[in-house]
Amino acid sequence: MSDIPVFPGPPVPFESHLPPAIHPNVLPGIIGEYAAAVTESVQVPFELPLINAFGAVAASVQRKFRVVAHDGYSEPLNLYALAVLPPGERKSAVKDACRFPLVEWELEQQTALLSAHRVAIAERQVREELHRALLSSARRCKTLEDRHELVAQLVALSEEEAKTPVAPRLLVDDATPEALPMVMAAQQQRIALLEAEGGFFDILSGRYSSGVPNLDVVLKAWNGEAIRIDRRHADPIMLDNPTLTLILTAQPDVLSGMAQTPSFRGRGLMGRLLFFIPQSRVGLRHVETFPVPESLRLRWRQTLRHLLALPWDPLGSGQSLHLEHESKSLWLDFAAHVERNLAEGGRLSAMRDWGGKLPGQVLRLAGLCHVTQHASPETCPINTLTMSAVLQLADGLMEHARAAYSLMGADEGMECAKAILRWIEHEELTSFTARSALEKVKGRWPRMDKVNAGLHVLVDWAYIAPLEPETGKRGRPTRVYMVNPQWRGFKCTP
Questions:
Q1: What's the fold here for domain 18-64+77-110+169-407?
Q2: In the chain, which end has fewer C-beta atoms inside a 10 angstrom radius, N or C?
Q3: Which pLDDT band holds residue 456 (cuts at 50, 70, 90)?
């Protein structure tokens, strides 16, 4: 048996655990800088402005670029993210501070089309009158030729209506899954939803549609999968490359609601979301604050306006962004690290749906950082500095995702860890073997790989530490664990 391990201190009780805060200096460039400034101005956790800043950039460039990892594999630049915070966290103020250049741009587009819209309204009124007149004349059709002529005139009116100009939009504040395809069809197959509350999840879960979840559009718009929407009284909607950005902030009870909707995880929605579980600043906020420096606010506006002005091909899937050689090596090492942790007993084994998409999420985040740093992003590769920063962020994102899955009760590793801890406490153990832990919890977790996942959680949180394996009754080595002596007095969450 090895020497007695040295524990760093008492473990953190499960019931009070929050993932480590993401440091404002983690990202170089305008995204991190502006998010940090909004953090101090509004007095909120850094994670909240960070995802809203990423969302604003994604809304500006989605479908314009793709990050190519290697031949045959690339990622678009749209994001799905969820920040979980209690009431009173100034979510709307953060959203407005990050997306104001997009709102300005939309207003400009609407103003530019105002006169055209007035003409279109008048033309539509004329068409409606003509439509009614043609329908009223249907009863006077005496021959098949007359009927064909009437149908031709009605079709011509319908085609004219399709040519009515529509003001470009980047954002939608409130939309049902049924309405999203129509909005996308009118906006060259891309739109972003930046919401300060969690109402969209209620809609997705089917609360307003007899409890039947409607996830098809959201799932397919994550990676541009083609969508066909058949409509009873209208032409079908055909989208060959739909792209959606979802940036949502919601209260903690939304997570429990997601856990109670099996289709959210079973169909892959959970795996597509970046989770942020920030530490609240309520009660610690400064009363006197200062606005974001005007020079920085102007740079943020200029950055987004530049991205909005970049040309793109609505019929294509976006220009390619490539990785520097060293950046690609870093990413491949990270992807291999993630793969190892997806194995049974690994840090990500209880949330493989999420972990399997993490390397792709890193490419998306790196691409979004990259486009804000270069006037012509496609002319230079994503450098090592950007990739290293995003990989550091990804380490934090893993802990935030684990916290989210735990809050949802979806992390079996965490639940198994709590069961083992209750046994240790009841028996007042100072050490034990992995096989003995299996014997005590095998009613719910009958396999060693599942128990190992729980043991890994306890090790990570400093409740226990492994010793050298001992030889079992049949000569097979079994891992021995020592219990942290500083844990006594802590109570496990039932």
A1: Rossmann fold (3.40.50)
A2: C
A3: confident
CA-nearest of 3, 42, 106, 13 to 281 is 42
Backbone angles phi, psi at 251, to 5 degrees: -80, 160
Query: Distance (Å, rounded) from C-alpha 399 to C-alpha 347?
Result: 9
Amino acid identity of residue 79, one-letter, is: L
pLDDT digits (tens, 9 = 90+) for 459-487: 877 789 888 665 555 556 678 999 988 87
Distance (Å, rounded) from C-alpha 318 to C-alpha 109?
A: 23
348-359 burial, b if ≥16 CB within 10 A, otherwise e? bbbbebbbebbb
Residue 309: how many CB atoms within 10 A of its CB?
9
Among 232, 26, 193, smallest CA distance to 102 is for: 193
Strands of 291-422, DSSP E: 319-321
Amino acid at 258: M
Domain boundaries, the chain: 18-64+77-110+169-407, 114-162, 412-487
- Cβ contacts of residue 371 below 8 Å, gap of 6+? 57, 61, 65, 77, 307, 321, 377
Q: What is the pTM of this model?
A: 0.77
What would the two tokens of residue 387 be?
């990739």
**What b/e sequence results for 409-439 when a residue is b if at least 16 CB atoms lie within 10 Å of its CB, and e otherwise?**
ebbbbbbbbbbbbbbbeeeeeeebbbbbbbe
pLDDT of res. 396:
93
Q: What is the H or E stretch that residue 254 is in?
A: helix 253-259
Domain 412-487 has CATH 3.90.550.10: no
d(CA 253, CA 257): 6
> How far out from the chain centre does Cα 199 lie?
16
* Distance from C-alpha of 92 to C-alpha of 69, rounded to nearest angstrom: 36
Q: Is the pLDDT of residue 178 over 80?
A: no
